[in-house]
Amino acid sequence: MPGIGTYFFDSVRSELFVKGGLDMTEERSASLDRKNLLRADPRGLQTKTGGPPGSPALSTSEPPARKAVTFTVESKVRYIEESAGRKTRKWPNIVKQLFERFDGRELTDNMLQEAAQLFNDHYGIWGKDPTNPRPAPKPGSREKLSKNRLRAQYLPDNANCSYVRVTVEDRLAGNAFACRWSYKNRTVCWVTQLVVHSDFRERGLATHLLIQLRHDDDAIYGIMSSHPAACLAAAQALRSGINTGFIRDIAEAMMKASPIGYVKDAELRGNLFDPAETSGIVSSVDTRFFVDHTEPLKALAWVRTGLDWPLGELLDGYEFFLILAVRCPDRSRSSSRPLSGS
Length: 342
Known about the structure:
Number of strands: 15
Structural class: alpha+beta
Largest sheet: 11 strands, mixed
Shape: globular
Order of helices and strands: EEEEEEEEHHEEEHEHHHEEHE
Strand order of the largest sheet: 4-1-5-8-9-10-11-12-15-14-13
Helix content: 10-25%
Radius of gyration: 21 Å
């Protein structure tokens, strides 16, 4: 995880500034409970960043009360240097990041409209559907999602849902939706959407959004995505290796318990679930969602230069299927493939 300076607190606004590795906070409320202030180690601020390419305007109306607010410093630090011929002094260019978490019932129409616009502008592009000679929408066009469809699909009434967003210098830079349900007395947290603005990628925002989604009682974490960066962000958020045996053992029954239609009805594919499978896929779902895979495949090739990628190939109309154990009760039952250098 990139080094950050982070403050976590409830119902209080504060600002964090970092210069030369030293941080100073300007408190805007006298009600801040310092005993509940948790601070991450800021020593890693000047870090080398890098990641797979594409790794995964606010409303003027007053938003509802925040459940949690986090300010972080951008992990990719830019420097301002003095003119040549003089001894160089480097200072980080200060960037403010604000993470906000909401219960699904708190989202206003304006917030949903902003989330839908972020999706429409930065999520993905339609590819070719080989099953349809006259595909609609047109290949190369951007995927679109209306405010009403966003509410219906990602905030179902019969589920406990959460929403996290991050703004960078007051611009909406990314967001994530999640729904929860119970499976064998364990709470499943399923990431239903993860979007990062194209101007703010490769900065660790996806990982930090997923960290903010977590609740203390979450026991299982899951995501379906065509982009390996989203899967890696989930694993990094939990500091977890990918245990393919764990996925195999619980995937089908856990999905049938889901209140989310596209998760419940998804068709599992790969030799993890069918040993006779020979196409190279390991853990995927056939969503028949024909998104252009040019960028995800480039990212996958990049990932494989340094990691043992455990989820296999990515086919058209498929997405990777990932389940992570927050607290796995019995690790001896299945094999684990840590995300380590090959």
